[in-house]
Amino acid sequence: MISLYIALKYTKGFERYDEKGNELYIVLRKNLYGVPNAARAWSQERDRFIMKYFNKDHGKGEWSCHKCIMDPSIFYFTRSEFTDSKGKFYPEACAIAVIHTDDCDMIGLSSSFFSFFLFIWFKGFKMMCRSPRNSK
Fold first, then answer.
1. What residues does 95 pair with on adjacent strands?
2. Which residue ranges make up each domain of the chain?
3. What b/e sequence results for 41-73 when a residue is b if at least 16 CB atoms lie within 10 Å of its CB, and e otherwise?
4. CA 55, CA 41: separation in Å to the nearest integer?
5. Among candidates 76, 5, 4, 77, which has minimal Cα distance to 40?
6. Which among 28, 61, 77, 106 could disulfide-bond with 82, CB atoms 3.0 to 4.6 Å apart, if both were Cys?
7. Is the separation of the CB atoms in 64 and 82 below 8 Å?
8. Which residues contact 83 (CB under 8 A, 6 or more apart)?
9. Alpha helix stretches (DSSP H) within 32-85
10. Where are the alpha helices (DSSP H) in the chain?
11. CA 47 to centroid of chain Cα atoms
């Protein structure tokens, strides 16, 4: 996870001290909104997660990922064709994702990839999908 910690002083009048009289501080962890380098820190963590997870040796038919050199927000996912242990054939497939700070647009030949990607994404970052109609 993102290892950015920010120490803040308590507001005047709300200061706190330990038993030895030393001033205590608030420490923020993982809350990067408003921090100037937040987008960069999140992008690095996100990219590290995607490249590590999708390039593991999962076995036959698993997805691999390549990051675009010219535009680091573009990811190219591929899967070679394979037949699983039950004899079901899976054709070669690919998908392209454009991922900016907190937005992701994808196109691909396999709807199973989108489900797989969301599952991995939600599992890795403990996120949830919200429909604009349901958010209030």
1. 77, 108
2. 39-125
3. bbeebbbeebeebbeeeeeeeebebeeeeeeeb
4. 21
5. 4
6. 61
7. no
8. 89, 90
9. 38-54
10. 38-54, 111-125
11. 7
pTM above 0.85, yes or no: no
What's the one-letter identity of residue 66? H
The answer to whether residues 4 and 35 touch, using CB atoms and an 8 Å cutoff, is yes
| More reliable by pLDDT, 5 or 132 | 5
Q: Is residue 40 over pLDDT 90?
A: no
C-alpha distances out from residue 43 to 2, 32, 34, 91, 93, Å: 10, 12, 15, 31, 26
